[in-house]
Every structure is written in structure tokens, then in C-alpha cells.
TrEMBL record:
It comes from Microbispora rosea. InterPro entries: Aldolase_TIM, OxRdtase_FMN_N, Oye-like. The lineage of its organism: Bacteria, Bacillati, Actinomycetota, Actinomycetes, Streptosporangiales. Residues 18-231 form the NADH:flavin oxidoreductase/NADH oxidase N-terminal domain. This is N-ethylmaleimide reductase. One of its GO terms (molecular function) is oxidoreductase activity.
């Protein structure tokens, strides 16, 4: 993951960079609490490939440390998502403007990672049309159709799509993607949380696997709860990003009545 403009000098010690000098709306986490996201420095064209390579370098470290593979975070308004955006990315060089320009960074980042650790160890997460952190996109079906077409020859382990756009658009992307597809079946941070019904719905629409986020935070035994139809415990948002054990390893497994 590369946060790019969704960062702060109080956290990193340096001014964030971005595709363009456009600040993300809202506040970002810092050691002293939330603060407005600063205006990033726009990357020079010659700098962009180095940031694409940073994903590959991180992947090598992860595999060397014993991980089976890596997922590039191309979703939710972070760096790859910012380049895909038509509001965060106002560039007029080869990395902006047209659909081909806006997908270029994502393709380069994934290609570099595949060369470094292999396609079978590489996935990417995407959030079509989400608009998180102000990274809004135009021409969503065409944009993501073009991106998946460029990624298909790389033989990735999977594509991971969030349910952030119209269902019919996601179904068409399922049809367009020749490999394994993971779907996060509800809007991230939305009012509905992923459950068995949502999972079954997307399995019926062609997803190969379903991802769970908040449900796994609060349920160390989530798989067993889904298997047995047991209630899924809610997560405690107040413990997120805080550090420490609370909300990290303090959620109990389901307790059956005696």
C-alpha cells in the first residue's frame, strides 16, 4: 500500500506526493490525532516509475519474510486509485488524461511486482467508482474494463473487487476477467456489513471467493459462525487505529449456552 496524498508530514516526516497537487478532502490520522490532509507535491514524470517500483520492492521483502504473496492496494483512494481518478489525477503527461494514461501507473506497478515475485504471488484490490478520499472516476466501466484487459496477460493470482459501483458493472467485469475473482460483497464502511447472505449472492453472480473485513476484525471464529449460522459480533470502531490489544485480540469466540 502507498497512501500518497492520504498522509501527513506529522506521520511520515515529509510532504506527501500525489499525481497532482490536489488535497484529499477530510482528515487523516496522525500521531496527535486527525488533521486535514495537506496539498501534496505533484510527482514529476520522471519520478513516477520509481513509485511504481516501490510496490515490487515491498513485495520482495514480504516474500523474503515468509508471506505466500501480496495484494497491491489499488482501491479506496490511495496511490493507485489516485492515478485512476479523474479528480485526483489532473496530469497531462503519459500518466493522466485518457483512460490509457490513467491506468498506466496501475499496470506498471502490477507488472513490476509480477516480475519481482511472480504472477501467482500477486493480486490487486480495486474499488471501481468508489470515490473514497475524493478520488472520483469518470467512465468507470470503460476504465476498469481497459485495466483488466491490460492485467489479464500477467496471470495474476486474483483480482479483488469491492462492491463500490453498480452490480451490473461488476458482473460485466466478472465476465471480462479470465482468472480468479474475489469480491468484497458490501460497500466498505457502509451501513451493511458482509454476511453469509451477501457472500452467497456474489458467489451466485460468479465470484470465486468472498472477502470479509469488519466481520473478521470482531470474530476470530468467523468461518465457524458462518458455517453454523451463528450470530456475527459487531466491531468496535472506537478501537480502530489505536494500537494495543483492545479491539485487536480481545474479541471472544462464540460462547454456546450451557
Amino acid at each position: 500500500m502507498h497512501g500518497c496524498r492520504v498522509s501527513h508530514p506529522d506521520t511520515t516526516g515529509m510532504r506527501p506526493v500525489g499525481p497532482s497537487a490536489v488535497a484529499a478532502p477530510g482528515e487523516v490520522f496522525t500521531p496527535s490525532g486527525p488533521k486535514p490532509a495537506p496539498v501534496p507535491r505533484a510527482l514529476e514524470t520522471a519520478e513516477v516509475p520509481e513509485h511504481a517500483l516501490s510496490y515490487a520492492r515491498a513485495a520482495v521483502r514480504a516474500v523474503d519474510a515468509g508471506f505466500d504473496g501480496v495484494e497491491l492496494h489499488g482501491a479506496n483512494g490511495y496511490l493507485i486509485s489516485q492515478f485512476l481518478s479523474s479528480t485526483a489525477n489532473l496530469r497531462t503527461d503519459a500518466y493522466g488524461g485518457s483512460i490509457a494514461g490513467r491506468i498506466r501507473f496501475a499496470v506498471e506497478a502490477v507488472t513490476a511486482t509480477v516480475k519481482a515475485v511472480g504472477g501467482d504471488r500477486t493480486g490487486i484490490r480495486l474499488s471501481p467508482g468508489a470515490g473514497f478520499w475524493g478520488a472520483e472516476e469518470s467512465d468507470v466501466p470503460e476504465l476498469y474494463g481497459a485495466l483488466l484487459a491490460e492485467l489479464a496477460p500477467l496471470d495474476l493470482a486474483y483480482i479483488h473487487l469491492e462492491a463500490t459501483t453498480d452490480e451490473d458493472v461488476l458482473v460485466e467485469l466478472r465476465k471480462a476477467w479470465p482468472g480468479t475473482l474475489i469480491v468484497n460483497p458490501v460497500l466498505p464502511m457502509g451501513p451493511r456489513k458482509a454476511d453469509k447472505a451477501a457472500a452467497d449472492h456474489w458467489l451466485g453472480l460468479g465470484a470465486d471467493l468472498i472477502s470479509f473485513g469488519r466481520a473478521f476484525i470482531a470474530n476470530p471464529d468467523l468461518v465457524e459462525r458462518l458455517r453454523q449460522g451463528l450470530p456475527v459480533a459487531p466491531d468496535d470502531v472506537s478501537t480502530w487505529y489505536q494500537g494495543g490489544d483492545a479491539g485487536y485480540l480481545t474479541y471472544p469466540a462464540y460462547r454456546h449456552a450451557a
